[in-house]
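Hey, can you fold this one?
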Amino acid sequence: MQGLVTLLEANRPTVSLPDGTTYLCYLKGRIKRDVGRIMVGDRVIIEPTDPGEARIDAVLPRDNQLVRPPVANVGGLFVVFSLTEPSGSLELLDKRLVMARIHGLEAEIVLSKADLPGNRQDLSRIQQVYEAAGYRVWQVSSPRGLGLQELVRERRAGIWVLTGESGVGKSTLLKAIIPSAQAETQELSRIGRGQQTTRWVRLYQMHGYWLADSPGYTALESTVAEAAMIREGFPEFEGHRCRFADCLHRQEPGCGVKEALSTGEIAEWRYQHYQKLLTEWVKAY
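Sure. Predicted structure:
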């Protein structure tokens, strides 16, 4: 029988079948040798051994895998961003979006805590910039239920990872979307930084897709071989004519992106993050 690893706790995978049946599984010795580390999102072949328990006989080839958070066969990312309480980092938001493009993943932006006083104008500006870049953007408020039904009922496929900085409201959002989810929430620490409340990755079945709740991280690291990969991670750069086909939009003459930047068509913060990623992720720069 083929199933999907939906939870990995204390090295014991929980596997869900298409009919909703779940099994607590263990791995054959050769699987550990061949695969190394099983991951949430793995497609596996199992053989039931006892009521509610099964043996994993094979792990099917992965389409892709993320290391942080550890999820296999990912289709897309929900990148959650909070403007206040705590104040999120647009730089980290852009890093996650570029990472998604590099890995060939879809990405949507979830602006949380949209009901907080003073957020509306700034959130609308952020939404305008990212929608112009081609991203789908959702403003939500978990306590008030604002935008939640529209978010979760959109047609998608595969596994979508709920990711973002600690404290931006991922667990609260998940609990609002799936009341039965065993997502713990905590008050923010006294210094205003988010506390990590999710300790492992778990998949939840949604309307035609799976939603992954995962631990939040305050940083993402990556090494990219080609500068063009970073450039392509900023879709709003496309369509602007440059004198040179391989223009990296830095000091080159006749750069259409720099011209769009000067007129405000491209957001200054997006361009600055692009420059910084070139320096951080591409060794030659």
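The two ends are 49 Å apart (CA to CA). Let me know if you want another pass with a different chain boundary.
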